[in-house]
Amino acid sequence: MTTPACVGHKQGRFLQSGTEARIEIEGIGSLVNICA
Known about the structure:
Elements: E1 20-25, E2 29-34
């Protein structure tokens, strides 16, 4: 399995263990995922 073209960070940064990804929609709530 490969990553599609144009996906990722130009400087080669990647999510690391412990990185928190948070998505929040005002009035609805938030979704938090922590990378393992």
